[in-house]
Amino acid sequence: MKYTTEIKIIKPRTEVIEKFSNPDNMKHWQRGFISMEPISGKLGEEGSKNMLKYKMGKRDIEMEEKIIKNDLPTQFHANYSAKGVYNIQENFFEETPEGNTLWISHSEFSFSGFMKLMGIFMPGAFRKQSYQYMKDFKDFVENNKSVLDKK
Known about the structure:
This is Polyketide cyclase / dehydrase and lipid transport. With 151 residues, this protein is of the alpha+beta class. Helix content is 26%, strand content 44%. The radius of gyration is 15 Å and the shape is globular.
């Protein structure tokens, strides 16, 4: 399953990237985020790996992140693997003529086991989740609003 989501952030790209690239900010725009622990390599560098932990409803989810390309401020690509799900994420950050930022995200998911059913019967849930993260990030950057305040 492949799809593209995009959102315009009414802030300069330098400010957007500063907030996007700081792992301490993830808790402010990724609902359910608990922690990120380095596995190998230097944080943010291509080839480095991290373990991400989330709480989604009653489920605890762990996923491994591998940085594929970090050419910020223009692009950031990573692969994510969790039980039954593999995700390729390609993020592009473009400056608009008005001096704002357009965030374009290409997502590709593949599934195995039980998660294959989720991919078949609920493909919109993945797109919706991706776009929710983008909206929450936009709100964090533009208005300094954290998803932690929305609990």
